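== Folding task for one protein ==

=== Format: two labelled lines per protein ===

==== Paired sequence and structure tokens ====
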Amino acid sequence: MRSSVVLRLGASRLALLAVGVAASASPAVADTWQGYYIGVTGGYGDHQARYEDPDSDWFGTTHQYHPKGALYGLQLGRNWQTDNVAMGFEADFLGSTISRNQIYSSDDLVKNDIDWMASLRARKGFAFGDTFIYETVGLGFADFERSWTEAADVPDSWPDLGDTKVGVVAGFGVERAIGGNWSVRTEAQVFRFFDNTSVNPDGFPLNIDDIIYTLRAGVNYSFGGNGGSNRPFVQGKPFDFSGFFVGASLGGHMATVQLTDVDFNDDGSTYDLLSNGFVGGIQGGYNTQIEGFVYGLEANVNFYDGDDTTAEAGAAPFNFSGLNWSGDVKFKAGTAADNTMMYLVGGYAFADYDLSRSDGDIWDLSGTHSGFIVGTGIEHAFTPNVTGRFEATYSGIGGDTSASPTNTESFRGAAQDVTLMAGINYYLGERGPLGSGALAPVDWRGFYVGADGVFAYHQGSMFDRTNSDHGANYTLPSFGGGVGLHAGHDWQDDAFVYGLIADVTALSNEESDNDTGDRVMSSSLNWLGTLRGRAGIATGQALFFASGGLAYADAELDHSYIATPADSFHFDNSRWGWTIGLGVEKQMSDRSSFKFETLYTKFSEVGTGNGSTCSDGLVTEPCEMLGYDDTITISAGYSLRWGADQ
């Protein structure tokens, strides 16, 4: 089996109403976050199902289906707390209304439902007084109910594509005590499942890979505490993470290597070759620490296990892919309390991957290619020289466009990879003592405005739902950058900081593929704006926060025929969506601050026709393609601030 985890980590649509109630509520009676708890939760689920056709029975590439719906359920767990750091385990069970029936190729009814979901996770983070900000990772479960029914050829149908599947889940959230033993929280999680395969009566298999994004708010009741005071904040000096360090890490990875048929040699679409395996590597770097704010540079080299092949029945493998090794140089920024650091990373990455196709002719797009890396992690000091850490990263890697030596038609390659790794670092030289607490926070209240420099990785994808041309997905990844402006307002209750922020960024993302004399496929992201809440914990001059809300963008997708322009598909340039992310901010003075932030943005589905009619037995309908866009941004920003005490 193959699995893949998307850790484009985040916490979306922060419940500002709940946050406002939390800020003004009466003190909690539980003395710490320690103890058992039970609660209810509800929210939104966005499902991406990728159908892979290894036998080229229908489309020979990858389909993506995107049902959405509501989630509702229960959770229970147990926390332990030491000073300002809490950790624990949680199990949840969710009912689901995620469901969608779609007609493909005017002849096939494709059903995608999720009946229920569940998870068993660890979570850890900062617990300052009445606020707990945490990251979480564990096992995910879901029960899928789906089918593929061909009206004109029932034996070429898949009557039961459903399965109860196991995968991995990761995310983060913010929880706030509101009085008594009650707390409210918002959180985001991403589930990625091992694939399942079904074979129809004609002997053709379908492989299905699933990703589910969940955005939820909940209420918990804790059985801990002594019925007395607020949850404590332990003031002291955090461990000093500054200095040179070296280390090693081991974990798992989930890779997607994309093979795109630019010149319509065969299917004219993108095939997602999915693989998973072990990953191990070494790291080294240097940190600088100013009070509770930690920043530095780190370099990594990793080696991977796992590959993927596809072949038609009875034939030799004709698609092959796999990651071999990667390296990166990344900027790190985080906050420290007690003996723990929560941090973000972002930077330059390169990877060596195999990607080849042998289908009469041979295309070899293997090689070492450049890209980016983004992620988050938690590091904990066991001794003054030895720390342990857990880190989750996402990498987007470019690739070549190459023709076969005997065929001028070309394919394009690209890759994405997610890693979950645990590691140990050794800090060189003489070290100070272990940490004794957290620093008292400075005042973050008031308005601010500022400017951002932004890196953006954008994937635009077109799904040929009615089989007007290639009959599957065509994906165009692009790297770009830009500058933007932001404005916002923060409120504060002790170490808990919460607020609203709006921003807009002009971007240069643009990519196109040209099948000479036939068609041009293009995608661009011109600008992106968000309106979101944020909430986090301040220690000294540093703030670690989660953020989420609404997004709006000008993004273009086009499937343009050169010889017959009237048959082209041009998508609406306006996109609404949601965005989630994490950030670290450092006050430089009473009136200025610097922030480092990562966001994942997913836009709503858009559809467009070209005025023609498609028919293949089940229905006669307008020819239509569906468009999808998602974006990862890494930004550095500077703000001018003014508030009550400034």
Q: What stands out?
A: The chain is about 0% helix and 70% strand. Residues 1-30 have pLDDT under 50 and may be disordered.
